Amino acid sequence: MLNYETFSILLYFTLLIFIGVYAMKKSTANNNEYLLGGRNVSAKVTALSAGASDMSGWMLMGLPGAAYLGGLNSIWLALGLVIGAYINYQFVAPKLRVFTEVANDALTIPEFFSKRFALEAGSIRLISSIIIICFFTVYTASGLVAGGKLFQSAFGFDYNLGVILTVSVVVIYTVLGGFLAVSLSDFIQGVIMLIALVAVPYVAFGELNFTEQSLELSSYFNFDIELVAALGLMTWGLGYFGQPHIIVRFMAINCHTNLGKAKHIGIGWMTISIIGALATGIIGAAYIAQSTTVLNDPETIFVHLSQTLFHPMIAGWLLAAILAAIMSTISSQLLVSSSSLVEDIYKVFGSKQDSKNSLLISRLCVALVAIIASAIAMSNTGSVLKLVAHAWAGFGAAFGPLVLFSLWWKKLTHQGAVAGVTVGALTVMIWTYVPILADGATLSSLFYELLPGFLASSLAIIAVSLTTSAPQSQALDWFELTHDKVNAS
């Protein structure tokens, strides 16, 4: 029998598919429109799209779960993210938007890296494309794990069926409408997430008993974390400079002068949402402590509170907020992966096709990456936050330093770029997966892998660039033109 919650989810799915159809008719005439919306996205859509695609399922599952277990100690992670996002808007966004346009309309991050040196098919383009496809496949899988967990815990569905339902709807509207569909759906999803992350902790707080157990509840609001651990959490903010699915939003805004407005909207949305996510976990832990309920998976605290404290119809829309967070990121990742497969590998190093065939291949690649990610998600039901952490660190270390040096350091060379990306990615992989310590543990058990990878990549870029030949004059002209145009505005 169709209940209120299921009905709400079906309505939400219908809305997303409608958006996909609308966007297909509005903005899929060529690959420029399909992959970047024709560079005509408004400031408010850019801001909420960047935020929603950034936060993913970990905002409503991973982060509340971490706060549920660690209390206010998780605030260091939140603080690092807000600072990193602000710096990204302030120093990366304007120059990236201008450079990718003046450099013969670069559509993807790997193409931007290559054209930074006035190269059409530089090795940096191929290497960065491979890294994007590999890390995004895992990153997408983390979102599908969250989707599977949601359907399993909220509706009693089989986990694998939940994964299939999640990926099917995302693929439909992404394949149909491309970047515009993803951005418009992200905007709506961002609004839903914001409302949910204010409503759930607010109502849960009102249900707490602060008389008999006030002393016990206070333990959830204490700081008890070592300096090294706090620093490790704050370094998450470094990852923003290298996340392709986030910074590609800056490339698509209608004018770089509107990025200031987008920054205010985006940072405001992010701050309120993160506070709501932390409050959900902390207040949820106190709520569970006062009840007779046993919560087996801390990452489902938002689901539990939604179903316990709200009418089923409202609970259905709150659960849709989780799907919103999950789908907004998955769709962005699928589109970026597809763009790298088509624009940076197939068209550059393979066969050149006309625009109609490029659109078809782009759509097929979205489905291909989704299938592979689904297979990974079905074989791995681990922590959403852990899966996200590894992919976030991989992108942050491999691409973050290169994005910054590309936009701010004139002496950067192609060889330095290749060295930086390679060293950053390898450092994260070794730090995360190789059992170096005496007890067989990895270095990531001591400190989060992003900062070591970021520093190693930066050093490699500087060392190699200082010993190799300077970029072509065309690249330097684009670099100067970008700086002049941004400074003039």
TrEMBL record:
Q: Which reaction does it catalyse?
A: L-proline(in) + Na(+)(in) = L-proline(out) + Na(+)(out)
Kindly give the Pfam families that the UniProt entry links to this protein.
Answer: SSF
The way it spans or sits in the membrane comes to:
Multi-pass membrane protein
Where does the record say this protein resides? Cell inner membrane; Cell membrane
Q: Which residues cross the membrane?
A: 6-24, 67-87, 124-147, 159-180, 187-205, 225-242, 267-289, 309-336, 357-377, 389-409, 416-434, 446-466
Q: Could you list this entry's UniProt keywords, alphabetically sorted.
A: Amino-acid transport, Cell inner membrane, Cell membrane, Ion transport, Membrane, Sodium, Sodium transport, Symport, Transmembrane, Transmembrane helix, Transport
PROSITE patterns to which the protein is assigned, alphabetical: NA_SOLUT_SYMP_1 (PS00456), NA_SOLUT_SYMP_3 (PS50283)
Q: Which family does it belong to?
A: Belongs to the sodium:solute symporter (SSF) (TC 2.A.21) family.
Name-wise, this protein is Sodium/proline symporter
* Organism field: Thalassotalea insulae
Gene coding for it: putP
